[in-house]
Amino acid sequence: MLQEAIPDLAKYVEPDRVRREVYTDPDIFELEMQRIHEKVWIYCGHETQVPKAGDYYAVQIGRQPMLMVRGSDGSIHVLYNRCPHRGNMMCGDRKGNAGEFFRCSYHAWTFHHDGKLRSIPMIESGYAGTPLNKESPDCSMKRAARVENYRGFVFASLAKDGPTLKEFLGKAIVAFDDMCDRAPAGEVEIVPTCFRVIQHSNWKIFLENQLDALHPSVVHQSTGRAAHEVEKQIAKQAKKGEVPLSYHMLSAFATVTIDKWDAFQTINYPYGHCILTGYMGLRPQDPDTKAYDEIMIKAYGQKRFEEIVGVNIHHVLIYPGLSVQSQLQQLRAVRPLSVDKTLTEIWHFRLKGAPEAIYRRSLAYYNLVNSPSTLINADDLENFWKCHQGLSSDGGKWVSFARHLGRDVEKDGVVETAPNCGTSEAPMRNQMKAWAEYMRG
Length: 441
Ligand code: FES
Ligand SMILES: [Fe+2]
Description:
4-stranded antiparallel sheet; 23 strands; 441 residues; binds fe (ii) ion; alpha+beta; binds FE2/S2 (inorganic) cluster
């Protein structure tokens, strides 16, 4: 039906612009859920969210309520959160422990952690001679078609065919390598609670903003300037002029002025993924960093240590649902709820084996930049809502992505912004290219 409603998707996406309906049409949203979110690899969560057998965590993939579950053998399963009997949701809580098996709260059918039927009350007397076959998959909880775990990050795809997780991630896999490699123990642990923000705007508006290098010094200028003023006062009073690094996290939005943003670079990959290099060098020579460096050198040796901390990325966008800041150990997962409503989950991680001070640095960034309690996030949220409102009006038909178009450097399907073109709208063009490919089916 939806295919008939959108006969010619090509007319919605041109090289430098996109029709407004792409953000506002509920039929297009439904098709996006079918052809993108319920097909590609979607981040479910980190394995440390479900450490013990029976632990589960609810997660939304496209329109499907799912459960990430730890089995008794240690493996992780992703199941539809639905009882095969009469459709009751198996777990109403966001997270918990199912015990040795799932037990439906309606008529007590029970299921193993991998979703397989375990028992039905009075099965012989109730079902002998009926068409119900307890061995049929129809009697078990349905599983996600594919589940893969990369360095603790669990992804599921609801389509049985398609690229492997590694093929899908391609070079964007650096997001997870960079985060885990920075841990002396080579792995991270999730901080098991997150901020959840519901944005009153289409999901693509959030993703397009992530690597929009033009916006920070405009949108976040007032916040950055206020922080910079305080930073200067503290520097004047403090011994040796030392100011906590957290001020820099905010003041950078003002001190990196609009003209400097072209100096950064985005690298755009197949499937809509993108990396922003440079920007916030967090290699200060304070005692905390030095203590961390020493532990890292002990764990990896000088050469490997230099390689690890030399990775120069600020942000990795994994289309269509993840924005990772590996050097600050955080990520934001995007869960579209409807055409004009989007849930973002904001998570952060501990580097296993790193000193507490390094975790505090990640927590500071989490609270100061990404959380709903900061002005930075609020600045963005206001624009997201205003964008969606404007796009819902008859004030114009198109969204423009023409900035630095034609100046990108393309090689083997990878699009790099040319020198001094860091504010290029190449990331948005790359996302829309992937979008159009998915939507063609
Ligand atoms: S709906 Fe689950 S046992 Fe009946
Ligand atoms: Fe922003």
